């Protein structure tokens, strides 16, 4: 009779990320460690994007045959999962050292953005659920820990961390898009923004888009002194603070 209490079998890719796959006892000795293979994959991705990371390309970077690489990772899907885990790294201590939940989440958002700036290709990896690899879980833990002394329920803490993570990811996605446009055009980012505003000025009429027309006329879209994303994160956290209320102290509160 089947054991209904048995947990699901751990996929090999996840086991590799956790270091629980034993080294093979037979076969030729490996020339590289798995970490060295992943370092080579990260270098390819940093240079030419996620599409450049193929099994033959990584093998060539290491001086291996494509078939030899399968002794380290069994598929491209496994390679990409481990690549994302390597690129994510561990969360910085600044998150846990921050004073108060708000400062902790601000540090969390800043650190998340820094990861995407270092490795823009990570924005091209599809999110299909909560990643079950150690570094990804360490980031999730850091976000939840920032909220540990609040009265938010466990479900509410998860929701807040996901919102802050999503904000950081969207910011990085937009910033990368503008940066890529500027590079392709050989212009400064400010020039791209100004050209965009001028084009909109030709297309947006007051009768059809009255609010957008007024916004363009005010210069709001080209005001470099105002950071839309900093403002958005601040208002998001204001909303959380208002929801929590004034009863939060420095000591842990019971979890609802």
Layout of secondary structure:
Blueprint: H1 12-18, H2 34-48, H3 55-62, H4 66-69, H5 76-88, H6 93-97, H7 101-118, H8 134-146, H9 154-185, H10 189-203, H11 210-218, H12 228-244
Helix pairs in contact: 1-5, 2-3, 2-5, 7-8, 7-9, 9-10, 9-12
Oligomeric assembly: single chain
CATH architecture of the largest domain: Orthogonal Bundle
Global structural class: mainly alpha
- Overall tally of structural domains: 2
Helix content: 55-70%
Largest sheet: none
Identify the CATH class of the largest domain.
Mainly Alpha
Counting H and I runs of at least 4 residues, what is the number of helices? 12
Give the total of beta strands.
Answer: 0
Distance between the termini: 39 Å
Task: Give the SSE string.
Answer: HHHHHHHHHHHH
The value of Rg in angstroms is 23 Å
Strand content: under 5%
Indicate the mean pLDDT: 88
């Amino acid at each position: 009779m089947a054991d209904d209490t048995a947990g699901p079998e751990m996929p090999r890719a996840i086991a590799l990320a956790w270091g629980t796959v034993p080294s093979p006892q037979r076969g030729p000795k490996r020339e590289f460690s798995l970490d060295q293979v992943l370092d080579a994959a990260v270098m390819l991705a940093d240079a030419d994007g996620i599409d450049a990371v193929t099994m033959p390309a990584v093998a060539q970077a290491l001086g291996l045959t494509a078939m030899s690489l399968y002794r380290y990772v069994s598929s491209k899907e496994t390679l990409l999962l481990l690549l994302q885990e390597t690129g994510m790294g561990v969360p910085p201590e600044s998150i846990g050292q921050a004073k108060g939940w708000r400062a902790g989440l601000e540090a969390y958002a800043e650190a998340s953005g820094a990861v995407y700036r270092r490795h823009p290709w990570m924005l091209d990896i599809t999110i299909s659920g909560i990643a079950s690899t150690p570094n990804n879980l360490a980031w999730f833990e850091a976000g939840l820990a920032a909220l540990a002394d609040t009265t938010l329920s466990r479900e509410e803490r998860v929701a807040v961390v996901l919102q802050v993570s999503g904000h950081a990811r969207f910011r990085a996605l937009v910033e990368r898009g503008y940066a890529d446009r500027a590079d392709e055009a050989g212009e400064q980012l400010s020039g791209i923004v100004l050209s965009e505003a001028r084009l909109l000025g030709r297309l947006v009429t007051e009768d059809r888009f009255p609010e957008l027309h007024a916004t363009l006329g005010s210069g709001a879209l080209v005001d470099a002194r105002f950071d839309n994303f900093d403002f958005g994160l601040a208002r998001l956290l204001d909303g959380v603070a208002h929801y929590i209320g004034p009863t939060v102290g420095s000591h842990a509160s019971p979890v609802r």
